[in-house]
Amino acid sequence: MPEDSPVQNENTPDTTGEQPRRARRRNRLIVLGAASLVALGLGGVAVATTGPDRPAPTAVSLDAQSRAEAASRADRSAREASPPASPSASPTASPSAVAASPLPTKTATAKPKPKPKKTTKPTAAWVDPMPGAAVTSCYGERWGTLHAGIDLALPSGTPIRAAAAGTVTQAGDAADGYGNSVFIDHGNGYLTHYAHQSRIAVTVGQKVKAGQVIGYEGATGDATGPHLHFEVHQGMWNQIDPAPFMRARGVDLGC
Predict the structure, then answer these.
(1) What is the largest CA-CA distance in the chain?
(2) Is 46 helix (H, G, I), strand (E, B) or coil?
(3) What is the pLDDT of residues 71-113, one digit of tens each?
(4) Model-level pTM greater than 0.70?
């Protein structure tokens, strides 16, 4: 070693100004290295600073470890952000599956039986003028004269009914002891006569049906007690026996 180049150690004062220059050079290297690391976004760099007597700083890069941790965090966040797939509530069947599936068959259901219709029994063409009455006298000779009808007895006020449909031709006192009477023309050449009524319920000209109430039993006229004197006329005042006539039409008056 040349003698004109003295060796300096830590205890030798620097008279040449070399140490300040080295320190400044190290500081510039440190600043440039830190700026480069910040620009590249590498946060995992450790910079070792040294004093004026220590060797130059050594940069330890943690790039590989940082990348692995970042990838792990990204993968975990992606898994947490995406919702779990739920099964479809109503999966759509493929056309082939639809074609293969059999069509539903209709099951036979028992039809309810229709309720039987209520049928009203038709009214007979001829009916009993006072059903349930007791016969007190039939058609024929009585006390030397013709009794031209049938006497039917029930309590006073019992309804009297038309023996058949027709038109009322008389309604009132018929004289000759008949008292309050009703005459009905049945339009077939026959009339019926209802005598001794306590009250009349129809008027002349009125159309009546078989079984319709035309008055009420009584004892008006020549009568010994409440009863209906019923006659059948083949033409006006041509009385015939009511028993066989009504029997031929399905009505038994008891004589």
Answers:
(1) 204
(2) strand
(3) 666 666 555 555 555 545 444 545 454 445 555 555 656 666 6
(4) no
